[in-house]
Amino acid sequence: MFILAVMDMREYDSDGYAIFRDVLDAGLVQEADEHVRWLQERHPGRSGEDLSTELVAKDPFWVRLVSDDRLLDIAERFIGPDIALFASHYIAKPPYTGKAVLWHQDGAFWPLEPMKVVTLWLAVDRSGPENGCLRVIPGSHREGIHKVRERDGEDAVFGVESDVAVDESRAVDVILEPGDVEVHHPNIMHGSNANNSPNRRCGLTIRYIPTSTRITAEPLPFPSALLLRGEPGVNEYQPRPRYVAGEHLPFRGAEDWAA
C-alpha cells in the first residue's frame, strides 16, 4: 500500500490528477445511484446536473457518503488528517441531452483561503468518452489561475470557461467504472463533452479541505461546510443531519443517524 501511495502522489504531483480503482463497494454505489434518482424526484425543477451544495448538509445519506472512511483516507494523503467538506455536487448527465462542462480551473471560483483543497470525483456510472467523461489537461495545474469569461448561448452545465486557449490534443479522457475515484488539483484545466449516448453519466464531486483552509463566503457557516475528521480548525460547520424515516432516503446504517 505504501508503494501505491507513493506512485499516486507522484502522478498527482506531475500530472495534477490520479486515479484510485474499486474504492467503494457495489452496494454503496448502488445506494448512491438510488440517492440521485430520489433527489431528482424530490427536486423536479432541478436537472441531473444541478444537485449540489445547498442540499448536502441536511441529507443524512449524502453526509454518510462523503464521510466514508475510504474516501477520507484518500483525501488525507493529499491534505492531511484534519478534514472538512467544502462542497459536493452530483453531475448526472442524462442520455442524449447531458450537457458539456467547458474548460475551467476550479480554483478560479472558490472562496477559499489559502487554495488548499482536493477534489474527489466518484463514479456512480461507468464514465467514458461515449457519455461525456471527465477530461483533463495533464500538467496544467502548474500554471497559475486564469481569468474566466462567459460563453453566451453555450448549452453547458456552467456558462463560463477559462479565458485561455486549451490545446485539446493534450486532453486525457478519464475512464472510470462505478466505485472508482479520480482525484484532481484545484488548478488543473478540465471539462467534459456532452452526453450523446443512450447511457446516463453520473459522478459525485467531493471538495475536501484541510481545516486550516478558511471558507470566506458569507453568510457563515457555508451551506455544505461539515467537519468530517480531526480538529475543527478555522471554520464554522453545519450540524450533522439527523435521519428521519419517511423524510430522508433509507440506507444501510440509517439507524445510526437517527439519534
Automatic annotation (TrEMBL):
Q: What is this protein called?
A: Phytanoyl-CoA dioxygenase family protein
Q: Which Pfam families match?
A: PhyH
Q: Which InterPro entries match?
A: Phytyl_CoA_dOase-like
